[in-house]
Design goal:
The complex is a heterodimer of chains A (about 190) and B (about 240). With about 190 residues, chain A is mainly β. Chain A contains two helices and ten strands. Chain B has about 240 residues and is mainly β. Classes of the chains: A mainly beta (about 190), B mainly beta (about 240).
Amino acid sequence: MFKTFLFGLVLGVIAAFAAVYFVPVVDQARENSVITVLPNGGNAESYHINIPMDRVAVGAAEQPVPLPPGIEWPDDFATSSAELYKVRNIHDAVIGVASRVVIDNGDSGNAIEWVMHFPARGSLYVSMRTQVEAGQQRSGAILSGTREFSRLSGEVTEAYVPLEGDDELRRGRIELVSSYRSIVGEES
Amino acid sequence: MKYLIALLLGFLAGVVIVAALLIYNPTAGTTRLSPLSVSSQSLLQLSYSGVTERSIAHTNNGESAAKPYPAKILQLWEAPVRKTDVKVANLLDARGRPVGFGIKYMSDSEASNLLQGKAIVDSAWHVVLPGRGSFFIEQSENYWGYLRNVVLPAHWSSADSWKGNWTGNTTAGPGALGIARVTGGSGEFIGRTADAVEMISARAYSTRIGPVSLEGNLMIELHSEDTLVADEQGE
């Protein structure tokens, strides 16, 4: 019987090691990336945020209706603001989260920045130009990317598009279009 | 029948031995010393509270020990964001004065490996210091030491809680020596790169509400020489 116990023990050790080795601890859910190849080189990807449905939080001074209820924005940063959103792909599936921050840098002027975080892919850090361009859109440069985006540079445009209809959860959308190009060749 | 019971008991003992080996793996230790502590460059030190109720906002899937705050914040329940926490934290300087806010994204990483003692979280900080500027921190963090020394003992305790004093360096990359990468965005940080390390100090944890006393520290090494990181800022 002791030999049977030992056999079971060895079997248990092997099974446990095999389970730990082969079964992934984390398996992030993924949506297919919908990427367009640009005619002048590089790729483009579109995201959008449904307003107000995808607004997670708004950190700003003197909000008439705080979002979420109970949020307290520090008075020390009253001239800066931050917004948190869920980000969707063109199939309207949530694929990540993002923050849009307006920063009062005093004498250096204001800055507008986005960080888009896609758990299965990586993050993008974008600095927008403060001037609004034609078509009520604003553009900016990708300053940094992580993981899948670490070897990419490019531009991002943002535009707010009001939507018609009675859907109170989709009164408008923020459209974000990223155009990427590889920086591998530029580094060498 | 008795042979079957002996086999099952042996199997169970084998599984327990492996679990004990993984938990008490001596090669998977916690780094307590920051690689930046020997730096000759000037350091920017920022601290924040890891307790959700002391954040400006904190959201996740709503099922984690750390509950979303404020309670009615939109939760991240969709599958692609379900393993992600987002925290908006007040950032304090070394003297405890509020100097800015930071948004931290934390996603469970597929690089986690229990055999190697890696409970990896891919995280990114969007740090804003109004009046000074902003920057972005990219890092992968290893929470194995925190899980092993704080969270597991809390689950094993009959009081469902842990009290003590544990400090560890969570930053595990992407830079060599386990250093995070910093990219300047605006103000005085524009066009600069830097290194950073994040450390956490835990004093109390509850299995019901998550961290009860937890402080995080970001140490950012400001290089004296500016490094241009993006030549396309349109400036």
